[in-house]
Automatic annotation (TrEMBL):
Keywords on record: Methyltransferase, Transferase
UniProt protein name: Class I SAM-dependent methyltransferase
One function term, GO molecular function aspect: S-adenosylmethionine-dependent methyltransferase activity
GO biological process: methylation
Keyword match Transferase: yes
Domain Methyltransferase type: 42-135
PANTHER family linked: METHYLTRANSFERASE LIKE 7A, METHYLTRANSFERASE LIKE 7B
Domain of life: Bacteria
């Protein structure tokens, strides 16, 4: 999908995401996931700042989203919650940071939106420091056969209306990426996953010896 219509689609949803932040929907999952962010945090696809109420106050955040309206709401949320954050209005799929830039990378409900979620997961691997953490709360295809069938049928409609895929097998995507999963919880008939992961480093830096 072309970027501008997709960004507009999310711009229009910004008031809805702000309302959800204020109502603290998914509070228990967000609290559980976000107990331990440390140091310099990258939050991708920050939306209206739904995670900011749960961050410890000492972290320094870089928050990215390609929707200017979402960023506007997220700035208000950072201010309300006393979070020190720098904001970037950018497309995560076209963005690059130097290797090992962040202590913690946070992504909640974002893998449903990317064109190439596998490539984004592998970027997290690169951007996260070796002893850092990657914290994910993602939704996708249910483990319930009837529900997953319905999700597959409704996928193209969901993409057209809200810009999010419903038919992604999130755990398969994460398992196939370079990330190392340390802990995982699944909820809502296997549609929602909380994942605590760490990067896998070193494989590419082993020099090949010529004999
Ligand atoms: C379903 S919302 C989730 C927002 C927030 N993370 C949350 O947990 O409520 C998806 C967000 O991802 C953003 N997004 C989608 N694709 C993106 C991309 N390629 N680059 C940056 N932001 C993106 C949208 O603008 C939107 O704010």
């Amino acid at each position: 999908m072309e970027r501008t219509p997709l960004i507009r689609k999310f711009d229009k949803q910004a008031p809805h995401y702000e309302k959800r932040r204020k109502e603290q929907t998914q509070k228990v999952w967000r609290e559980t996931l976000l107990r331990s962010p440390q140091g310099h945090v990258l939050e991708v696809a920050v939306g209206a700042g739904a995670n900011f109420p749960y961050y410890p106050k000492h972290v320094e955040v870089t928050a990215v989203d390609f929707s200017p309206e979402m960023i506007r709401k997220a700035k208000e949320a950072a201010h309300e919650n006393g979070i020190q954050a720098k904001f970037m209005t950018s497309d995560i799929e076209r963005l690059s940071f130097p290797e090992n830039s962040f202590d913690t990378i946070i992504s909640t409900l974002s893998l449903c939106g990317y064109q190439n979620p596998s490539a984004v997961l592998n970027q997290f691997n690169q951007w996260c420091k070796e002893d850092g953490a990657i914290l994910l709360m993602e939704h996708g295809l249910s483990s319930h056969p009837l529900l997953s069938r319905l999700q597959r049928i409704l996928d193209s409609l969901a993409v057209r209306v809200v810009g999010c895929h419903q038919n992604r097998d999130i755990m398969q995507l994460i398992h196939a990426s370079k990330l190392i999963i340390e802990k995982q919880e699944s909820h809502r008939l296997g549609m929602v996953h909380l994942v605590w992961a760490r990067p896998q480093k070193g494989m590419n830096s082993i020099p090949i010896l010529e004999i």
